[in-house]
Design brief:
- The protein is an alpha/beta fold.
- About 35% of the residues lie in helices and about 15% in strands.
- It contains 9 helices and 9 strands.
- It has a 5-stranded parallel sheet with strand order 3-2-1-4-5, with helices on one face.
- The protein is globular.
Length: about 240
């Protein structure tokens, strides 16, 4: 298990993307529980910073600006005097930024080769299916994962326009990658089924999902709540749903 006795300041690196950043939140919570006085800074791309901006387990969110040279960002990080770096991105860029940043560095142990063999050659070398948070935890000297799930902290001023007392079901039909998307016709069938079950169906997503949500809404009558990547508003709407 990780020994935090002599560690006071930690840098966690996860630059992208939204889902993977949210999947780091159990690690932040566990570290803070183990040592409440621990100072945890988080390096993240500017466009995904809302995912951790209000997390009380984080002392400071450090924004990664793609227009800024890595050498400048590295210089800023060097000034912070971190005792430990936890690199949950583990790519060429994150390795360059974190190199010699602290005496101890943990890196996410990606099952990259196994993924390539499965996706490209249909050769399954996975002995078991593990969640990303579990793999994150196992990359940090077998840090023990709790069962409290992910966390997104929504500011109090974010309000939903949805009515209380209505049975809402939320569908998220979009994805950054086309190969991760369920066919639109399947969603249309699901909307009709949920309506028969007495649910008001909500379509949730960001700017890139507008076309998909709009099409499903026009064909099915589901309520299109896709927006311009307003993460907190989407989360507030999700909170009104019985399931997503």
């Amino acid at each position: 298990m990780i020994n935090l006795t002599t560690i006071n300041k930690v840098l966690v690196i996860r630059l992208s993307s939204l889902g993977d950043i949210l999947l780091t939140t159990p690690i932040l919570r566990i570290l803070k529980k183990k040592k409440p006085s621990l100072e945890i800074d988080f390096l993240v791309k500017k466009e995904f910073s809302d995912a951790v901006k209000h997390n009380p387990n984080i002392s400071k969110v450090i924004l990664f600006d793609k227009n800024e040279k890595d050498s400048i960002i590295k210089s800023k990080l060097n000034d912070e005097n971190f005792d430990l770096v936890i690199d949950l991105q583990n790519n060429i860029r994150s390795r360059g930024l974190s190199k010699r940043l602290a005496e101890k560095i943990f890196r996410f142990k990606k099952p990259s080769l196994k993924k390539i063999l499965l996706v490209k050659f249909k050769w399954n070398r996975f002995k078991e299916v593990k969640s990303i948070p579990k793999m994150y935890a196992e990359s940090i000297d077998d840090l023990e994962l709790d069962d409290e799930g992910l966390e997104l902290f929504i500011p109090e001023n974010i309000k939903t326009s949805l009515n209380y007392g209505i049975k809402y079901a939320g569908l998220c039909p979009g994805s950054k990658h086309f190969t991760k998307m369920w066919p639109k016709q399947y969603f249309l069938s699901l909307v009709l089924y949920l309506k028969e079950m007495g649910y008001e169906v909500l379509l949730l997503g960001g700017k890139e999902d507008r076309q998909t949500c709009g099409f499903i809404s026009e064909q099915s009558g589901a309520l299109d709540l896709s927006n311009d990547n307003e993460l907190f508003l989407t989360a507030a709407n999700m909170n009104q749903c019985e399931f997503i």
